[in-house]
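Cast an eye over this sequence plus tokens and explain the fold to me:
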Amino acid sequence: MDPPPRRLAALPLLLLLLAAASPAARAWKKDEFRNCNQTPFCKRARGRAPHSLDAPLSLAAGSLSVSPDGSISASLSHPSRPRPLVLRLSALPPGALRLLIDEDYSTSPPPHRRFHVPDVLLPDVEARTLHLPEPKTAAGVSTVALSSDLDVVVKHDPFELTVRRAGSGDPVLSFNSHGLFDFEPLQESKPEGETWEEHFRSHTDTRPRGPQSITFDVSFHGADFVYGLPEHGSTSLALRPTRGPGVEESEPYRLFNLDVFEYLHDSPFGLYGSIPFMIGHGARASSGFFWLNAAEMQIDVLAPGWDGATAAENGRIDTLWMAEAGVVDAFFFVGSEPKDVINQYISVTGTPSMPQQFALGYHQCRWNYRDEADVAGVDSGFDEHDIPYDVLWLDIEHTDGKRYFTWDHSAFPNPEEMQRKIADKGRKMVTIVDPHIKRDSSYHLHQEATEKAYYVKDANGNDFDGWCWPGASSYPDMLNPEIRDWWGDKFAYENYKGSTPSLYIWNDMNEPSVFNGPEVTMPRDAIHHGDVEHRELHNVYGYYFHMATADGLVKRGKGKDRPFVLSRAFFAGSQRYGAVWTGDNSADWDHLKSSIPMVLTLGLTGMTFSGADVGGFFGNPEPDLLVRWYQVGAFYPFFRGHAHHDTKRREPWLFGERRTALIKEAIHTRYSLLPYYYTLFREASVNGIPVMRPLWLEFPDDKETYNNGEAFMVGPSILAQGIYEEGQKSVSVYLPGKESWYDLKTGSPYKGSVAHKLQVLEDSIPSFQRGGTIVPRKDRFRRSSTQMVNDPYTLVIALNSSSAAEGELYVDDGKSYDYQQGAFIHRRFVFADNKLTSFNAAPDNLDKKKFSTQCVIERIVILGLSSAAKKAIIEPGNQEVEIESGPISLRSGSSPVAPTIRKPNVRIVDDWTIRIA
């Protein structure tokens, strides 16, 4: 059935808008997006000099008190303000500080209250709040012990807060030390003669509640660099200064989720997701600052001397934080090393979800695979070329007219049978489900959402009507938990006809993208559940959509199966619901290079399950670029090839026999390391430490690593560096630490704490195993990771200068939640005194469920072992086995050898010892 007649008149507009969404039209156009000077709250805040506010806030000493819940409250005010502010300080273990500031609504209440972002923090955060002691006040300064080694110092007039070391008194983090804290009060009505409207291009923001922005400065003491604030394209791992001496004209780092097509590879401009979390690190300190606020945010990193000081304090980085709306709900984290800071951030926003094992394999995607025959051809092509993969994806064209939860039955007449054929090889499929719902009276989803009043409203109270892929579209109000539950129910098999248990979901366009909206998104004066303006929650819309989809897949599986949902938009806490990727990148060398800092930054801010589109989404990569991208992408936590529909087909076997072999070798490298990756994902699900991490996270005292955005660690054991230039002949690779590193392919040793100039090889990128580590592998290659489950393991032991090494292996069923009840194997391997021992690393207090496997270790490769060793003894059993020179890898064409214990056949579930005789 056609859309209602009233929509037919809009057909020319639809065609115009969809044309504007075409690749040529949607390439980066700077003037389509606001800069700071076009954003009044940013322009106002950025124009202020330090300590220049007309109405600086002061703390009323008599208002300072300890509440029954152990928090400290106080009043902040200035005579010119219509109402005071209420401040609340609370502590979280092991030494985090939370600062909450809102308006005091008990006097002169405005028509609306400020928005506090719900359902992002873990639900037990308040319950974990520690009791703070009574403040000690003298000479207008109050001091509170935050922990045994940290104090909080609050200066009353003007208000300033510092977290400092208790013993030395050295500051670590400070708030408002430059007097830039401004909190625009909500007004009861618009003053006569004042204009609240804002205009950008052809759009008008009515701003019916007036200006309500918040600005403050935060200083990171003892920091050499600051990191974080995804998402923006960058070739620098550290955040570059955006203002001050020596800085050319620059914009602040913008956090405002937007659909940016073919984005710039190096720009502070905001992209698809926003995480307002910054980490400061130096040789003397590691610290973090997180502002829970979902409104548009702009953050300046200020160069030394920005404030006019003749001598900038050594080891201090100042930052300026600006938001359009919301409240101050800020967290200060201090650690002895950067992993402590990440762990504290994760303790309030949640650990990354444990993915199913298949999700760590290779994903093949394109906009779009045309029909069932195309799907079958791609699937069989991988088999014919002996290339493993795990997931085949379908983009928007698989639907019936961009109506999600439907199929184009002319192209996909038998979707369940298609999925079963893929699943028979242990593989999965993914379909796309976006938030825009086609406004078609015959579309059941639109009918239901309309009848239930489940759509976001426009400023006039009508269902918001914007344009996206289907044409006229409306958007579910995901702030409302009831609507999230309703959305989740749509993934049930009886509701999503044609879906099967092997089908998973991709959420795209959930910034949300609105083709005819201001800056290609929803107007800020749209209204959500609870009379909340869109401006107040914009950056969290995609997070709620991701949450609802993931929860829906959990319900679909009756709580037994872990979901897989990829989302483009994200916010703090998104790590609890699935994976993200870096969006619509381009097929060029610069985007390959920028993918490393982008993925590393996502990992530092909780989003460890991330990656970039291998090959670049937009454009046709030259074959050598595509090969290099696969070689880097094989190390991304999320490994997917994807391409725009206007590009040439680029399945791995379409670039000639030699390049096919090189791409296959890269994918085989990933599959051999799947046991190691799965173990790392388990670690991330416990403590939040990212799978792919910057060098300085493992070597926090080595200044050479602090801004290295070209090399990266995978866990604690593997270092890799991409090749980012066409025709590159040599590359300098810095290997940190005092121990040796061993080439992953050849086993050749390299000294640590040295930059090595290496010849660039065609068949791999520089990659090394760290001396003192043990890496588990699986070296038999199947069609998919699912078919490798019962294959034996290889342990690669890289000895350090003490002839010692250690590592871990985590195994569970790879799909269910039974591991939460103890159904897993966690082994710790230690090599010392010429003896390899396997210990049980699982805690003793596990629940009743068990997991077991008959998998054995078939090879143990020992790098750095003397060639004089000829045999080993396995205990228990006193079994003697030979040590011989064996290939480091079992893949075809592998010639380097190392001392190898072949077929010890010890089970991974058992305790055992292998002694070099």
In short: Residues 10 and 70 are 59 Å apart (CA to CA). The longest strand covers residues 897-907.
